Amino acid sequence: METRKYTLTMLVDNEPGVTARITGLFAGRGYNIETICGAPTANPKMSRITITTLTSPPLLAQCMKQIQRLVNVIKLRDMTGEEAIKREMALICVKTRPKDQKKIETIISDFQGRILDKGQQHFIFEVTGDELTVDAMLDQLAPFGIKKLARSGVLALYREP
């Protein structure tokens, strides 16, 4: 059966153990979580959790039914389609040699990244964009040597009408 990447977002009660129950549901049924992000919303009593997973449509439907049964889940949506705005943030530390610094600064600028720390042999910077944009930037920086990388995982919101 064909698998593809899905993005699920859920509003949940902002209480201890909620994220653990959701991730336990995935693990207990053998679903892999590719990325997960969670934080309180504008209402401090609720959090938004966004998960990306690689699965087949029938397994996704089964997973969504099981998530909706959890007591602390207020709302669940599949954000996979085009109507959702999806972004990811990455912090990247790349090796720099004096002869490569201008090339690396140009790549960072092309992707609208922001340099946070400059050392003699490294740059640390942030970049935001969709997952493909972050991947494309990493591909361009790979020849210089990526020392460290931290990615936030996907965040998603539906467009307002």
Concise description?
One of its GO terms (molecular function) is acetolactate synthase regulator activity. With 161 residues, the protein is α+β, with helices and mostly antiparallel strands. The chain is built from 4 helices and 9 strands, in the order βαββαββαββαββ.
Can you walk me through this structure?
With 161 residues, the chain is an alpha+beta fold. The protein has four helices and nine strands. Pathway: Amino-acid biosynthesis; L-valine biosynthesis; L-valine from pyruvate: step 1/4; Amino-acid biosynthesis; L-isoleucine biosynthesis; L-isoleucine from 2-oxobutanoate: step 1/4.
Task: Record the SSE blueprint.
Layout: E1 4-13, H1 18-28, E2 33-40, E3 46-55, H2 57-69, E4 73-78, E5 84-95, H3 101-110, E6 114-118, E7 122-129, H4 131-141, E8 146-151, E9 155-158
Antiparallel strand pairs: 1-3, 1-4, 2-3, 5-7, 5-8, 5-9, 6-7
Element-by-element helix/strand order = EHEEHEEHEEHEE
Uncertain parts: none
Q: In terms of structural class, how would the helical and strand content be classed? A: alpha+beta
Shape: elongated
In the CATH hierarchy, the third-tier topology of the largest domain is known as Alpha-Beta Plaits
Contiguous helical run count: 4
Annotated CATH homologous superfamily of the largest domain = ACT domain
The residue-averaged pLDDT reads: 93
Characterize the largest beta sheet: strand count, sense, and whether it forms a barrel: 5 strands, antiparallel
Question: What is the second-level CATH architecture of the largest domain?
Answer: 2-Layer Sandwich
Number of strands: 9
Q: Please give the alpha-carbon distance between the first and last residues.
A: 35 Å
In the CATH scheme, the class of the largest domain would be Alpha Beta
| C-alpha Rg (nearest Å) | 18 Å
Strand content: 35-45%
Helical content band: 25-40%
How many domains comprise the coordinates?
2
